[in-house]
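Long-time lurker, finally posting.

We've been working with Biotin transport system permease protein (Nocardioides daedukensis) and I want a structural starting point before designing mutants. I don't trust myself to interpret raw outputs, so I'm hoping someone here can both generate the structure tokens and explain anything notable. Sequence follows.
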Amino acid sequence: MRQDTLLGDYRPGSTWLHRLTPGPKLFALAVIAVVLVALREPALALGALAMATMLVLWSGMGIATAVRTLRRIAIIALLLGAWLVWQHSWARAVDSVGDLAALVLFASVLTATTAVDDLLDTIVRLLQPLRPFGVNPEKVSLAFSLALRAIPTTLEIAEQTRDAAIARGLQRSPRARLTPLVIRVVANARATGEALHARGIGDD
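Top reply, 14 upvotes:
Generated this for you. Predicted structure of Biotin transport system permease protein:
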């Protein structure tokens, strides 16, 4: 049985990535993210993208799934790349877009090889030492869980509004895409908030 995850489905398996506990995977993802953001090196970004692709193959996700995942951020990547070329240089664009694609694939591997419940339990356990400082591990875990569900939902809404605009012959109209997208995303967020409030979550 598959579980909804950040950028894909949890896929049970017996690879070394599946056997690795969530803690080291979360730590590795955090370290990679910090390094990629801190060091603006196109070669490093491309190397990270190559490494992420190898992990995709080892995880059993398949290249088709990885391509489908990257397609969902294609518009953002293209806009970001074009803006960086205009404002800075091709090297800066390659670095930032490469970082984005690599981190999306790394996150996809994490969610494809880690059950959501195990991931959330690990977050709660890792944050327990911060409880005396006012951090509520359960609330952080809940927020992470909501993000896991909200991101694919938002991407799905974006695809639906894009298809609807194309069907109406308005594919060139930003308003035809953005207006229904914003309305539906806000409505979904309100519905989620009302559901949590009805269960007494977040009242304090």
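Before you design anything, note these points.
The radius of gyration is 19 Å.
Residues 1-6 have pLDDT under 50 and may be disordered.
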